[in-house]
Each structure stands twice: as C-alpha cells, then as structure tokens.
Write a structure and sequence with these properties.
The chain has 349 residues and is an alpha/beta fold. It has two domains: 205 residues, Alpha-Beta Complex (Quinone Oxidoreductase, Chain A, domain 1); 133 residues, NAD(P)-binding Rossmann-like Domain (Rossmann fold, 3-Layer(aba) Sandwich), CATH 3.40.50.720. The protein contains twelve helices and 17 strands. The strands form four sheets. Strands 3, 4, 5, 8, 9, 16 and 17 form a seven-stranded mixed beta sheet that branches. A six-stranded parallel beta sheet has the order 12-11-10-13-14-15, with helices on both faces. Strand 16, helix 12 and strand 17 form a beta-alpha-beta unit. The longest helix is centred in the C-terminal third of the chain and has 13 residues. The radius of gyration is 20 Å and the shape is globular.
C-alpha cells in the first residue's frame, strides 16, 4: 500500500509499505477513505518528540471502511463505515471503565512505533485497528466522513478541555490558541453554557474564525489581553482558561489571566520539561490545574448528537484538501501555515 512515512526531522516519504494484516483475533483492517494532519503530528515532524522509528506510518485521524475482521470481533463486519479515536482502547480495563480511555491498559497511539514496537498510523491506504470492538465507532448516517474525522480527535478534545472548566453562564472564560483545537474548544465551551468567552491568538484569519464560532477575539500582539480580561472581571481574572497550544508562552499567558481559585485546562501537547510557572505561583493562586490527553472513546457518544444536530459549522476549519501522494507538500504547508492553512484533509487514492 501507499503511505506517508517518517524518516527524520521534517523528512517524510510517500512510499510503498507492507499492507497491514490481522495480528490478533480482535483486530480489524480498515481501508482509509480520508485522513487528517493534526497539530500533534508536528511534534514528531519537528522532532520535538523523539524516538519514532524510521518508516513509521504517520497520522492518527482517519475514517474508513472495515475490509477484514478478526475471528473474535463481535461489533463490526466487512463494509462497516467507521471512525476511530486517536488511541485504541479495550473498553473493559480499569481506565476504560472510569472513562479515561486514553490511558487504557491495553491501548496504543496510532502513528507511534519505537524500537519495532507500536502501531502504524492512518495516513495510508489501510490501517490495522487492534481491540476493534472497544476502539471503533460506526459512522452514523447523519455524520459526514469529515465530521467523523473531527469527532475522532479535535472535537472531542475541545469538548473535554471545556468540560474540565466546570462552565457556568455567569463565568468569564478564555481560550489560548485559535487553531483547529481552539475552534472546537469554542464549540465545547458554548455548548456547555459559556456566554462570555474570549479567544486569544495573533493570526487575523484565525481570530476572524473564532469570532464566527462565537468567541470575542483578542490579538495578543496588538492588545493588552491581560488587562482586557481583568477589566471584564473587576480585576480578578478569568474563571477558567483553556490552553490548547502546548508551549511555554501559552501556558504562561494562561497563568497571567487566571483568577485566584480558577481552573487552567490544558490539552495542548507539551514537550517542555518544565512548567511556565512555579509551585509557589500556583499555591499563591489556589490554582486548579487540569492537563492531559483527551479520552476520545469516552466522549464520542457525547459529541455525536451535537454533530448530528448540525448546530455548529465544524467542518469550516478544513481549509485544504490534498491527495495522499501530495502529503509531503501538505505537511510543509501545514507546518508553516502557508495560505492561511488551518486544517488539512488527505484523500486516499
């Protein structure tokens, strides 16, 4: 099959690799229809995260059709259209039972193979899905493939980020970062009752889209965003901040605008070894700090009705589509935000 594979910092290949096969009787093979490039893919691409084997198939966002089924699979059959979280999950271990499916004792992250162990990704014609009964979800007839693609990662992640903040209508809330996850966090926050919501970035086109999605845009390069938030809260600061970027300046800004006793909810993938604030600062603010990977398997049934209702134009964030054989170029465009790129979908051959 043809696939996008990792070969070092900012070096991807579009090449022929072995087709995946059934390894365990609980596996299925999915023929990928569409895949997406995620911001967290760039951590590998830029070598901010290291350890990935050369030749690993990239990507963890995909929608497709089941074409081969292991003998112990109960819930799926050939021909089923499916979407997947970005991690596999068994559905019955301790973490799956408490809703923390992203930390499944048997789970794996798509697109991560290290020293020969791991799971290849979905930016390919086919992908192996382990523990399929616990992992996959059938694509509802009222959900488009592109919507399903967003459900499998960033929409669920945005909803999770907002839910961590215990939103109530009287609160003042801030989102740091207006990329794809930021837009989905706006959706999640408004859906959960946020009425005074600010979104911070410096890219004019992204700020315009944030306003379209329902947030008040703030440009941190041209506005004193800390003072604006304080003015909106009688000097206190935001009740909660949703940090979706995953870098030190974003974390520092979140700390600067949060009120004492407030919540910082972080879903941006951080690669720094240190926090942007000290334990003393956190203590002195009685900070509530939430951080980590979204348990998408838990959130899929929560966000699916939202998507089916067509309440928000979530697919408007998809600004570019490429064929898989254009994937190397697509990564460069996405990495450098060329042509106002926000989200890229890859079409399979």
């Amino acid at each position: 099959m043809r696939a996008l594979t990792f070969h070092g910092k900012e070096e991807l290949h579009y090449e022929t690799v072995a087709d995946p096969g059934i390894v365990q009787p609980t596996d299925v093979i999915v023929k990928v229809d569409i895949a997406a490039i995620c911001g967290s893919d760039l951590h590998v691409y830029r070598a901010h995260e290291q350890g990935l084997d050369a030749g690993t198939v990239m990507g963890h966002e995909f929608v497709g059709e089941v074409v081969e089924v292991g003998r112990e699979v109960k819930r799926f059959q050939k021909g089923d259209k499916v979407l997947s979280p970005f991690t596999t999950n068994c559905g019955h271990c301790y973490y799956c039972r408490i809703g923390l499916t992203c930390r499944c004792e048997n789970g794996q992250l798509y697109g991560w193979v290290e020293q020969g162990e791991g799971l290849h990704g979905g930016q390919a014609e086919y992908v192996r899905v382990p523990i399929a009964d616990g992992t996959l979800r059938k694509l509802n007839d009222l959900v488009t493939p592109q919507e399903g693609l967003l459900m499998g990662d960033i929409l669920s992640t945005g909803y999770f980020c907002a839910e961590n903040c215990k939103i109530h209508p009287e609160g003042v809330y801030v989102i740091v970062g207006c990329g794809p996850v930021g837009m989905m966090t706006i959706v999640g926050a408004i859906e959960q009752g946020a009425q005074q919501l600010y979104a911070i970035d410096a890219v004019p086109e992204r700020l315009q889209m944030a306003e379209k999605f329902g947030a008040t845009p703030l440009n941190y390069k041209t506005q004193n965003v800390v003072e604006i938030i304080k003015e909106a809260t009688e000097g206190r600061g935001a009740d909660a901040v949703m940090e979706v970027v995953g870098n030190t300046p974003a974390q520092r800004l979140a700390m600067d605008v949060i009120r004492p006793g407030g919540i910082i909810s972080t879903v941006g993938v951080h690669t720094s070894p240190h926090f942007a604030f000290s334990p003393v600062e956190a203590y002195n603010k009685n900070l509530q700090f939430m951080i980590g990977r979204c348990p998408v398997g838990h959130y899929l049934p929560i966000v699916e009705p939202l998507v089916m209702a067509k309440k928000y134009p979530i697919t408007d964030i998809i600004t570019h589509e490429f064929a898989l054989n254009e994937g190397v170029e697509a990564y460069d465009i996405f990495d450098k935000k060329k042509d106002n790129c926000m989200k890229i979908v890859l079409q399979m051959p």
